[in-house]
Amino acid sequence: MTLPDHDLDAAVPAHRGDPLAEQRAMARSAAAVDRSHRGVILVSGEERLSWLHLLLTQHVAELPAGTGTEALVLDINGRVLHHMVVAHVADTVALVTEPGEVPPLLDYLQKMVFWAKVELRDATAELAVLDVVGPTTATVLAAAGLPVPQRPLDVTALPDGGFVMRMPWPGPDAAEIVVPRTAAADVLARLADGGARPAGTIAFEAMRVESGQPRLHLDTDDRTIPHEVGWIGSAVHLTKGCYRGQETVARVANLGRPPRMRVLLLLDSGDEQLPVPGDPVLRDGRPVGRVGSVVVHHELGPVASALVKRSTPVDAELVAGEDERAAPARIDPDSLPVDTGAVPPGRAAQIRGGLR
Fold first, then answer.
1. CATH number belonging to domain 259-336
2. Are 35 and 204 in contact (CB under 8 A)?
3. How far apart are CA 93 and CA 251, in angstroms?
4. CA distances for 68 relative to 92, 157, 207, 233, angstroms
5. Closest by alpha carbon to 178, among 193, 192, 158, 195?
6. CA 104 – CA 113 distance, rounded (Å)
7. Residue 323: other Cβ atoms inside 10 A
8. What phi and psi values does residue 346 have, to the nearest 5 degrees?
9. Average pLDDT, 10 consecutive residues per value, the chain (356 residues)
10. Domain at 7-211, CATH class
11. Do residues 50 and 219 lie in contact, with contact meaning Cβ atoms separated by under 8 Å?
């Protein structure tokens, strides 16, 4: 079986010898991953929170120091442009982004400064991002001499710069560690000595896909709105306003469901090539969606996240990919968005008013 390309992660190790064993370590104990190709923007200044609050989809105006969240930047039509992990450390907010995303994101942010009392800095060259994934994450952090934030999204500053942030994904427990780039190799060695198996991005991505966490550019396209991929709540606050694209977010939340939904596809690909992100998902030869992240999971086998039309039946016989990459696929019912059956508030108001 041909493993999928990891072009976004080409700058760091894809594996450390055995991607499936590395996944099992993430599921049963812990593994450490070099993700130092990710970008970091630092935002300081006395108005950093109130200014970011006007630009991001998440409520950060009163984000306490020592905590974090996730956030998006949308275009005027509510489509996703940027995703970031946000950490408020002392008097600075760190925005951790996808590889290559710093230049366009920083350009946008700088254009929005105007007279705000904020300072922006690209810290990618000086800070490296590492991750620990697995149920023994806390034990590994402590053994490596690193702080152990108690709850998901808690953040603890490091004395020499950087921070440790407890993460709710990918897996039963995780932590993101941002350290001076000159110290990254030493920290990885200490994590290994503390019981974390060295791992690569293939294993990390498999755990991310299993956890249902979307990734920009792989699980999104130029039409993606946050509701389609599950970023409402974790990265979008529905009751705050004052950000670009808010009208679309509110309209979809209040009047109906998004046109597409993110699901997990179980692939029957045998020893064939796997689909790649952007390939079509077909039903009876007609497109009903697009393939996102594609991984080989240590228990589920080859799987793919996908954006499909919300009307696609859960038991539909699908094909993911095309040509030599085409593979029979079916939707994992456990991956379907939770439907409470409640009528969206805007639609309920229309019904009360006699509209159909």
1. 2.40.30.110
2. yes
3. 30
4. 12, 12, 21, 14
5. 158
6. 15
7. 7
8. -65, -40
9. 65 96 98 98 98 97 97 97 97 97 97 96 98 98 98 96 96 95 98 98 97 96 96 94 92 88 92 88 97 96 96 96 94 83 38 39
10. alpha beta
11. no
Q: What is the dihedral of CA 313, 168, 200, 105, to 10 degrees?
A: 90
Q: Are 307 and 219 in contact (CB under 8 A)?
A: yes
The predicted pLDDT at position 256 comes to: 72
- CA–CA separation, 160 and 62 (whole Å): 26
Place of tokens 């992100």: 277
Give the residue range(s) of CATH 2.40.30.110 domains in the chain.
259-336
pLDDT of residue 257: 82
Total Cβ atoms within 10 A of residue 249 = 24
In the chain, CATH 3.30.1360.120 sits at: 7-211
Give the residue from 5, 79, 1 showing the smallest Cα distance to 278. 5
Sign of the dihedral through C-alpha 240, 260, 209, 187: negative
Q: Are 132 and 141 in contact (CB under 8 A)?
A: yes
Identity of the amino acid at 144 = A
C-alpha distances out from residue 236 to 57, 200, 213, 288, Å = 5, 29, 14, 26
In terms of Cα–Cα distance, which of 241, 309, 259, 253 is closest to 281? 309
